[in-house]
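Structure tokens please, single chain.
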Amino acid sequence: MRYSQLFSYVRDHLSRRPDSDPSPGAKANGKPLSVPFWKRLLDITLSLATIAFVFPFVYLVLAPYIKIVSPRGSVLFRQERVGLGGKLFTCLKFRTMHCGNNARAHATHVQTLIDTGVPMEKLDNYSAIIPLGKFLRKTCIDELPQLFNILRGDMSIVGPRPCMPYERDNYRDWHHERFEALPGLTGLWQVSGKNRLTFDQMMRLDVGYTRTLSPVLDMVIILKTPFAILTQVRDSLHKKPLPWRPGAPVISAMLVTENHIPENRKVLTHR
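Here you go.
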């Protein structure tokens, strides 16, 4: 099957309206949310291969560089994120900011993205970013340590972006359905426009992904990820991101409509 045919199959499959709108947790029938065997096998295989053949070389270069340009603090940045079922975990990244910066600026930025519906651009012009930090963030190299989060079972290769607890506090009820899948290193949002999309569009893609979880969809997202990163780097060379067009570059059919979201959704909580 040609790649274009494979993608057409996924797009057509995702355009079908779900037979029902289960409330969060209903997929587990009252039991704790679980990860499909095929997904866990894919995660372990790809993360081990990448750690063995890529991560050591990246670490040998980045570790001394980060310590030279920003001596204070460790090479790795640890941050609390929200995972499967609303459970908190420690997310790893290469540090791209100087130590001691105030997280309030980012929290304010996230709130603005949620309230205004503007494209979800990062604070890459923030003065606390280290030299070449913007490049590391645009190329997603800073996220390679999350391969160890994947091995631990806190994350997956493919899934919704792991959010911060203060971001979750501003979610509407139906947004919490995204926690029915493991957060991912890449995902449908990342290959469908990422920083060109609004917060609402991201949420609809995330919820749609959790409803149509499949090996075919994960493989399509993985294959499209390098091209999505190249597009993000290209956009960063412009004053502002290129305008996003409906249906480009990927799966506009995945957007969940308001009519598909019942008003009585219950919020997932982790106990």
